[in-house]
Amino acid sequence: MFANFDFSVIAASLPYLFGQGMVFTVTLTALAASGGIVFGTALAMMRLSGIPGVTHAAKLYVELMRSLPLVLVIFWFYFLVPYIGAWVTGSTTPIQVGAFASALVTFTLFEAAYFAEIMRAGIQSISKGQTAAASALGMSYWQTMRLVVLPQALRNMLPLLLTQTIVLFQDTSLVYVLSLTDFLGAASKVAQRDGRLVEMYLFAAVVYFAVCFTASLLVRRLQARVAIIR
Amino acid sequence: MNYTWNWGIFLEPSPEGVGTYADMLLSGLGWTVATALSSWVIAFTLGSVIGVLRTLPSKAANAVGTAYVELFRNVPLLVQMFLWYFVLPEVLPVGLGTAVKQMPDAPFYTAVLCLGFFTASRVAEQVRAGIQSLPRGQRMAGTALGFTTAQTYRHVLLPNAYRIILPPLTSEFLNNLKNTSVALTIGLLELTARARSMQEFSFQVFEAFTAATILYVLINLVVILGATLLERFVAVPGGR
């Protein structure tokens, strides 16, 4: 079965796979996760604001994103971002946007919907008595959020947010459909150039598994440490 | 902005020679639904078995279940798709591998297997959580009635667990449905792939993607409605 297995292909392409591919994957994951958490928090707060139009707009956005496949959303933004750019800058022709920028916008906006749901659950998990106590102390809405609700909510949500980031790390492999060179894209290019599909795809699977498995073990340990005992 | 809208494009003949662009998208929808349903059969059956394995007293069964879930959850779906499509035929015995490669509709069968095994790991987690959420007394009551382990699962634990996990199973079903679009990378002509090729042939990007978006939202609504009806239908009278 592995008689023709050629490890030298993997060894020879390691600098390319990690130097370019993995750096791309990690950069995209980190930027999209940070952007997604910021935007997701805003969405969650909009959804919990109780202001009619705002609540519904946030709900519609989250539900729409969650009912669409990521691949379709990637294509949507790939074609839409140049037009949005033109609209923002007031240009009459669609502006040139690189595939990386388009992928970054896509993942940030797509993951924001998922982060928003985690945030919403986290904020709702803080008991009413806490916000009531904060109001009784004369705190404003923003003070309550910043000093009472969010510190506890974030602590409860941290494991879920990190797990979602691991999912995002795996999902970034879908930039393959835009022919970007992420880790899988790099492996795929080498595989096709050298006709070594078996070695390269198996190696990619092993690397993804090692990274995600280790990360999820760490998240589980973290969860045991930060959990608030009630 | 200089984008020319043309909603009439859907009624124009597609470059395939038969039918219109609308027919093309609908055929894509058909493949999406067929792939989602077929892979769900595997995911639900296998996922239930793995989930049950993880709740059995046996350490070995636990280890097998855990290994399965960790393996399939920690490798991206796209990589798994490539492993099934490009790698599996190569590592099979030569004759069998060639037969697999020449099979008609190979992308469809590959996608069904891949999604089935992938989603099974997620279903397994839900089944396990459902069984573990039941009070310990239920398992003990089964034992007290003289049920074997298999009978306890069949008559006591699983009927309760499935009812509890119906909502998360619905969202796994929807995830599975959305994940069928990943199969466009191995050449399955499902809805997203069809919208993409419509865009390439007609240059009406936004009409094509809007239509696909609406179709996806519609199937989502149908599934959610179906799940609500199912939930009402299987609810135990007088139960929660």
Task: Explain what the structure shows.
The complex is a heterodimer of chains A (230) and B (240). With 230 residues, chain A is mostly helical. Helix content of chain A is 81%, strand content 0%. Chain A has one domain (7-226): Orthogonal Bundle (MetI-like fold), CATH 1.10.3720. Chain A contains 8 helices and no strands. In chain A, helix 1 packs across helix 4 (99-124) and helix 2 crosses helix 4 (99-124). The relative contact order of chain A is 0.14. The mean pLDDT of chain A is 90. Chain B has 240 residues and is mainly alpha-helical. Helices cover 75% and strands 0% of the residues of chain B. Chain B contains 10 helices and no strands. At the A-B interface, helix 3 and helix 8 of A face helix 2, helix 3, helix 8, helix 9 and helix 10 of B.
Spell out the blueprint of helices and strands.
The complex is a heterodimer of chains A (230) and B (240).
Chain A: H1 7-48, H2 52-67, H3 70-89, H4 99-124, H5 128-136, H6 141-171, H7 183-194, H8 197-226
Chain B: H1 21-53, H2 59-73, H3 77-91, H4 94-102, H5 106-132, H6 136-144, H7 149-164, H8 166-179, H9 191-202, H10 205-234
Helix pairs in contact in B: 1-2, 1-5, 1-8, 1-9, 2-5, 3-4, 3-5, 5-7, 5-8, 6-7, 8-10, 9-10
Q: Taking Cα atoms only, what radius of gyration of chain A do you get, to the nearest Å?
A: 21 Å
Counting DSSP E segments of at least 2 residues, the number of strands of chain A comes to 0
| Strand proportion of chain B | under 5%
Gross CATH architecture of chain B: Orthogonal Bundle
Q: H/E series of chain A, N to C?
A: HHHHHHHH
Structural class of chain B: mainly alpha
Main pleated-sheet profile of chain B: none
Kindly state the percentage of residues in helix of chain A.
over 70%
Family (chain B): Belongs to the binding-protein-dependent transport system permease family. HisMQ subfamily.
Transmembrane segments (chain B): 29-53, 65-86, 106-124, 205-230
Main location (chain B): membrane
Keywords (chain B): Cell membrane, Membrane, Transmembrane, Transmembrane helix, Transport
